[in-house]
User: Which sequence fits this backbone?
């Protein structure tokens, strides 16, 4: 039985390949967004290397696309609000907690 997968078998590398590389089970942390404190400065949107910050039709941040997010943490790093409006959370915790509860725990009001 094969015990490992070669990276080259699952990750396509080349120009414009981001949309072909969905996030696998390897993401360690995921960014969680708090709409209550977000000032819509768009810094996370311009900084995300994978274009995972979702904008509404009115050009306002409306969420994060976890299908492609690699968990690099750049969006949380650049967020200027105090406290930050994006926090990195362990993937295992995020997967076992419902989003409203997760947001309440991370960003207590
Ligand atoms: S963690 Fe990285 S890939 Fe994911 S949304 Fe933030 S900047 Fe984009
Ligand atoms: S960087 Fe922070 S405040 Fe600015 S749009 Fe993103 S989440 Fe909102």
Assistant:
């Amino acid at each position: 039985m094969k015990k490992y997968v070669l990276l080259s078998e699952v990750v396509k590398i080349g120009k414009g390949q981001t949309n072909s590389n969905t996030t696998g089970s390897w993401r360690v942390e995921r960014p969680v967004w708090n709409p209550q404190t977000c000032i819509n400065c768009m810094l996370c949107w311009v900084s995300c290397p994978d274009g995972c910050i979702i904008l509404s039709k009115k050009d306002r941040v409306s969420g994060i696309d976890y299908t492609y997010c690699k968990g690099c943490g750049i969006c949380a790093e650049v967020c200027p609000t105090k406290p930050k409006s994006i926090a990195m959370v362990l993937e295992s915790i995020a997967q076992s907690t419902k989003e409203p509860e997760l947001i309440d725990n991370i960003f207590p009001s």
